[in-house]
Amino acid sequence: MLTPDQVVETYFLEARHQLLEIAALLDRLDAAVARAGREPGVVATAKLAALREAIAVLSAELPTRERTVALLELFAQA
Amino acid sequence: MQIIQPHYHAIARTAQDYERMAMSGVVAVAEPAFWAGFDRLYPETFIDYFRQISEFEPTRAAQYGIRHFCWVAVNPKEAENPTLTREVLKHFPEFFAKPTVLGVGETGLHKSTKNECESLEAHVELAMRHGQLVLIHTPHLADKAHGTRKVLEVLAGMKVDPERIWIDHVEEQTIKPCLDAGYWVGFTLYPITKCSPKRAVDMLEKYGTERILVNSSADWGPSDPFTLQECILEYRRRGHTLQEALHVFHNNPCRFLGQNPKFDIQPIRVETLAEARV
User: Fold this and answer.
1) Fewer beta carbons within 10 Å, N or C terminal of chain B?
2) Mean per-residue pLDDT for A28-47?
3) B196 and A13 in contact by Cβ < 8 A?
């Protein structure tokens, strides 16, 4: 099994890549909103809300339960 | 759809790549000189490497109907040996005379050291003196923004023709200053460490398609030449037309590389038979 440092070292680049993809998705959304001539923040779908809530879950340093379980339950309702 | 792979390290790949690229529309690849994974010690090692990519690789690609072009350079990772760099540079003109050598690349920066900057300057100066195109590597990951600024600083202090220089591996934080300065830029698609196909399409939509090349930079590390086709699929899936895709993935490489007359593949325009009045 990996040590804590090994977990970070082993998966840092992969996580960086995945976070950049999420950042790009949100930038893509903003660009689409601007092209459509709509006000920022007006897109309010359940899926988008779930994504934003998931990001908040990931930001918690000491979650009350496993993040993966929390996200799966969250997405099940989206 | 016809596709050009502008940055492809063929010597690190198997013939299966060529076969699959040919089956998926790739008509030409251009191979910049690359780092071998270890620092080479002898000028002769580079000379043989340049012979391999300028003489042998075109024959391997030709078996699959793919045109193969190349570039010569001492990779930035090996620029810490200025004596070696100087010795290798002396041999560049003999390769400029070869029928498939397009110019000097990939030179550039890795850690942006003094030796690297001097090597970059020497490469660019030699290329300009011989009327060659230039392909410049920018650093990866944490050094990207700083290294790209440094590349622009070095170039700004030289007499260069920006339209003949391609600054490669740009990302969201480095594309604008390179385009603003009049250079061509390249997006390099990697599975993890560089730009992704989706992010590349985002940048095409944000910055337009002029003076932009997209490449997969397939090499001996974790890489995939078909990230280029993945990018084309993403581009088309977002509603861009076949002609727009050809503009980016075939015609732009023709426009930049075609500044060297050895690269004689012409841009393509699609039209229906009715339009062509056949």
Assistant:
1) C
2) 88
3) no
